[in-house]
Specification:
The protein has four helices and nine strands, in the order βββαβββββααβα. It is α+β, with helices and mostly antiparallel strands. Strand 6 and strand 7 form a beta hairpin. The longest helix has 18 residues.
Protein backbone atom coordinates (compact mmCIF):
# COMPACT_ATOMS: atom_id res chain seq x y z
CA UNK A 1 0.00 0.00 0.00
CA UNK A 2 1.47 3.32 -1.06
CA UNK A 3 -0.06 5.47 1.69
CA UNK A 4 -0.76 4.22 5.17
CA UNK A 5 -2.69 5.83 7.96
CA UNK A 6 0.63 6.28 9.74
CA UNK A 7 1.89 8.49 6.90
CA UNK A 8 -1.11 10.80 7.05
CA UNK A 9 -0.46 13.30 9.82
CA UNK A 10 -3.47 15.02 11.38
CA UNK A 11 -2.68 16.44 14.85
CA UNK A 12 -5.51 15.87 17.32
CA UNK A 13 -5.79 19.50 18.44
CA UNK A 14 -7.26 20.67 15.09
CA UNK A 15 -10.24 20.24 12.81
CA UNK A 16 -9.94 19.48 9.12
CA UNK A 17 -11.81 20.45 5.97
CA UNK A 18 -12.08 18.44 2.76
CA UNK A 19 -10.22 21.27 0.96
CA UNK A 20 -7.04 20.31 2.89
CA UNK A 21 -7.26 23.15 5.40
CA UNK A 22 -6.75 22.73 9.12
CA UNK A 23 -8.54 24.84 11.72
CA UNK A 24 -7.28 25.51 15.23
CA UNK A 25 -9.84 27.33 17.39
CA UNK A 26 -8.51 29.12 20.48
CA UNK A 27 -9.55 32.19 22.43
CA UNK A 28 -12.35 33.30 20.08
CA UNK A 29 -10.28 33.02 16.91
CA UNK A 30 -9.64 30.22 14.44
CA UNK A 31 -6.17 29.81 12.94
CA UNK A 32 -6.14 28.35 9.43
CA UNK A 33 -3.39 26.43 7.66
CA UNK A 34 -2.80 23.75 5.03
CA UNK A 35 -2.59 20.06 5.97
CA UNK A 36 0.50 17.96 5.42
CA UNK A 37 -1.35 15.99 2.74
CA UNK A 38 -2.51 19.23 1.11
CA UNK A 39 1.00 20.60 0.85
CA UNK A 40 2.29 17.25 -0.47
CA UNK A 41 -0.36 17.23 -3.18
CA UNK A 42 0.47 20.84 -4.05
CA UNK A 43 4.23 20.17 -4.20
CA UNK A 44 6.17 23.44 -4.11
CA UNK A 45 3.99 26.41 -3.16
CA UNK A 46 5.35 29.42 -5.03
CA UNK A 47 2.80 32.13 -4.14
CA UNK A 48 0.14 32.72 -1.49
CA UNK A 49 -2.53 35.40 -1.82
CA UNK A 50 -3.54 36.39 1.70
CA UNK A 51 -6.56 38.57 2.52
CA UNK A 52 -6.33 42.00 4.14
CA UNK A 53 -6.66 42.50 7.89
CA UNK A 54 -10.28 43.17 8.77
CA UNK A 55 -11.55 41.68 5.53
CA UNK A 56 -14.95 40.02 5.85
CA UNK A 57 -15.13 36.61 4.17
CA UNK A 58 -18.46 34.88 3.67
CA UNK A 59 -18.87 31.12 4.11
CA UNK A 60 -17.74 29.32 0.95
CA UNK A 61 -15.79 32.27 -0.48
CA UNK A 62 -12.05 32.04 -1.05
CA UNK A 63 -10.18 33.01 2.11
CA UNK A 64 -6.67 32.16 0.86
CA UNK A 65 -5.46 31.32 -2.66
CA UNK A 66 -2.15 29.61 -3.27
CA UNK A 67 -0.21 28.70 -6.36
CA UNK A 68 2.05 25.70 -6.69
CA UNK A 69 4.17 24.38 -9.50
CA UNK A 70 1.15 22.20 -10.36
CA UNK A 71 -1.96 24.37 -9.97
CA UNK A 72 -3.77 27.26 -8.33
CA UNK A 73 -5.84 26.21 -5.31
CA UNK A 74 -7.85 27.94 -2.64
CA UNK A 75 -9.06 27.55 0.90
CA UNK A 76 -12.61 28.52 1.83
CA UNK A 77 -14.21 28.30 5.25
CA UNK A 78 -17.65 26.92 6.13
CA UNK A 79 -18.54 29.98 8.24
CA UNK A 80 -18.60 33.78 7.87
CA UNK A 81 -15.42 35.27 9.27
CA UNK A 82 -13.33 38.40 9.69
CA UNK A 83 -9.57 38.30 9.17
CA UNK A 84 -7.77 39.10 12.43
CA UNK A 85 -4.16 38.21 11.47
CA UNK A 86 -2.23 37.14 8.39
CA UNK A 87 1.10 35.33 8.35
CA UNK A 88 2.97 38.03 6.43
CA UNK A 89 6.16 35.95 6.30
CA UNK A 90 4.42 33.83 3.65
CA UNK A 91 4.44 36.73 1.16
CA UNK A 92 8.21 36.37 0.77
CA UNK A 93 8.57 32.69 1.66
CA UNK A 94 5.40 30.77 0.69
CA UNK A 95 7.34 27.48 0.63
CA UNK A 96 7.47 27.57 4.44
CA UNK A 97 4.04 25.90 4.32
CA UNK A 98 5.63 22.93 2.51
CA UNK A 99 8.42 22.74 5.09
CA UNK A 100 6.21 22.89 8.20
CA UNK A 101 2.49 22.64 7.36
CA UNK A 102 1.32 22.40 10.98
CA UNK A 103 3.72 25.04 12.27
CA UNK A 104 3.08 27.59 9.54
CA UNK A 105 -0.39 29.09 9.57
CA UNK A 106 -1.92 31.29 6.88
CA UNK A 107 -4.58 33.41 8.57
CA UNK A 108 -6.42 33.79 11.85
CA UNK A 109 -10.09 34.72 11.76
CA UNK A 110 -12.98 35.41 14.08
CA UNK A 111 -16.34 33.92 13.24
CA UNK A 112 -19.02 31.44 14.20
CA UNK A 113 -16.99 28.25 13.93
CA UNK A 114 -18.65 25.15 15.35
CA UNK A 115 -16.81 21.86 15.86
CA UNK A 116 -19.21 20.00 13.56
CA UNK A 117 -18.01 22.14 10.62
CA UNK A 118 -14.76 20.17 10.41
CA UNK A 119 -13.55 16.62 10.86
CA UNK A 120 -11.54 15.59 13.90
CA UNK A 121 -8.16 13.90 13.35
CA UNK A 122 -9.55 10.35 13.17
CA UNK A 123 -12.32 11.44 10.79
CA UNK A 124 -9.78 13.22 8.60
CA UNK A 125 -7.48 10.17 8.51
CA UNK A 126 -10.38 7.94 7.49
CA UNK A 127 -11.67 10.38 4.86
CA UNK A 128 -8.31 11.11 3.22
CA UNK A 129 -7.14 7.49 3.39
CA UNK A 130 -10.27 6.47 1.48
CA UNK A 131 -9.82 9.36 -0.97
CA UNK A 132 -6.23 8.29 -1.68
CA UNK A 133 -7.32 4.67 -2.17
CA UNK A 134 -10.00 5.77 -4.66
CA UNK A 135 -7.44 7.86 -6.56
CA UNK A 136 -4.99 4.96 -6.56
CA UNK A 137 -7.66 2.69 -8.09
CA UNK A 138 -8.68 5.37 -10.56
CA UNK A 139 -5.16 5.72 -11.92
CA UNK A 140 -4.19 2.06 -11.63
CA UNK A 141 -3.30 0.30 -14.86
CA UNK A 142 -3.65 -3.14 -13.29
CA UNK A 143 -6.28 -5.35 -14.83
CA UNK A 144 -6.19 -7.71 -11.85
Amino acid sequence: MMHTERELRFPRDRYYLKNHAWLLPAGGTVTVGLTDLGQKLSKGIVHIDLPALGERIHAGETAVAYESIKAVSSVSLPFDSTVMQVNESLWDAPGRVNEDPYGEWMISVSGDFEKGMGMDSSGAKAYFTELLEQEKKRYSYDDA
